[in-house]
Protein: Fumarylacetoacetate hydrolase
Organism: Croceicoccus mobilis
Amino acid sequence: MVKRFTPSALPADHEYALLAGRVMFEGDPRPVIVRGGRVLDVSRAVDTVADLLDLNDPASVQGDDICGVDELTVGEGDYALLSPIDLQCVKACGVTFAVSAIERVIEERARGSADHAAAIRAELEHRVGSGIRNVVPGSDNAAELKAALIDAGMWSQYLEVAIGPDAEVFTKAPVLSTVGWGAAVGIRSDSTWNNPEPEVVLAINASGAVVGAMLGNDVNLRDFEGRSALLLGKAKDNNAACALGPFIRLFDSSFGIEDVRSAELDLRIEGPEGYLLEGHSSMNQISRDPLELVQQTLSEHHYPDGFALMLGTLFAPVQDRDEPGRGFTHKVGDKVHIHSPKLGTLTNEVVHSCDAPAWEFGIRELYRSIRKRHAVAAA
């Protein structure tokens, strides 16, 4: 049975939104724009989404009507909706909310064991909760709080990036490895403590300008990262462990950086056993401004194909699922819905990474596809 895209997953005001993404058409991942419920192939004008984001006025690009949004599918074949980015590197900022900072310290102190999380959470909330929520990272007050926490034996590398001058920035996923709406998202089969991370994700072009935003799921293995921060790569970068979409909403008169700063995100997880978890994240609670995080990511480096930047999450997975005190962890079959009114809804189902479709379409395949596309157009 073919799974189709749900038009209700579009932004609430999609008739005014400028949406960009990718669709597999005739075996070729085409850059597209969505207008009036129709999917327009813009590959005659630009080879990739990265090229599209570099244009001064993406809205002016002409495209060929290939299908309606209700005809988009998941998986292989024509009209298959893909992750909306292609050549962009996927970067991520962690510990950008006070609650997530406390949760990372819990993982560290629990050495990746969910059994000890509840008691540690209570102690940390009592000792540092109010202080970390009210301090500006990198400020004199933050330095004073750091000194006090060091004296109390409560300091952590996670608190360093939460309230210190430098944000945590890491590479979440290789180029072309992300999955889109409706695709499976993966957790390692040897992980016993993990969770989704619902986030707003910025789209930055080759000039370093923020040109749009989308939703993302930074799937995280709490047991791996909790054992050692040096396992961050294994905790974050796994097959199908980064979902983006459903489309990039490009900045225009109806949507801009202020909408990102004020975005509200809702998380809903439906378990195969009837379990239900609902959470909420408000971008106005972020400890560093999104544009500051972009600048810290750019640093002294340059991204010639642009990049996507995950901004972190307020979601704290503390609701017990199976045993009291163990909090939340995924089960195979979980359906994860991340919603924000102006960005739409990103929906994915959890599987083990080894059971998710293998990532086989890499950079070489993209180049071959583009060459074939041009050859057909020239014939």
